[in-house]
Amino acid sequence: MFTxxxxxxxxxxxxxxxxxxxxxxxxxxxxxxxxxxxxxxALLAMRAVCARRMAxxxxxxxxxxxxxxxxxxxxSSWVGRDECGIEQRLPSPVNAMAVIESIRELCAQTVYVxxxxxxxxAWIIHWRGRALLSEHHALSxxxxxxxxPKRRAGAPRPSR
Length: 160
What we know:
Elements: H1 4-13, H2 23-31, H3 35-52, E1 61-66, E2 72-74, E3 76-81, E4 87-91, E5 93-94, H4 96-106, E6 111-114, H5 117-127, E7 129-134, H6 135-141, H7 143-146
Parallel strand pairs: 6-7
Antiparallel strand pairs: 1-2, 1-5, 1-7, 3-4
């Protein structure tokens, strides 16, 4: 799933996981692993990186939670009621730094910050839980959540 180069780049940005001087030794150890073991180690390392990554200032983030049964929920804004009187909601952008502070620091829970399609895929397939997705990735991976309420009539409603 992740290449060695992707892992090196992610580890270089994750100063809380490794000091820069430790990265070459860790990479050398990874290079000696059989492919299956490398992928398991890379997945664990990337999970740790994404769980500690801070949001960037130049990106709009959406807050999604993926449950173990693959249902999902998201921070949303009310957009009205349908013809049956059921409220309709759409994902809304969040203040990523405030979410990170409140979830990680005050609640001591994990929130992943995901920047690449491989990270989003790993989150969906393996990690689950709460994540901040860039606007591009949120729209790409959860298009139904962003569709107009009338277009998604009859589709299963996201849990809240």
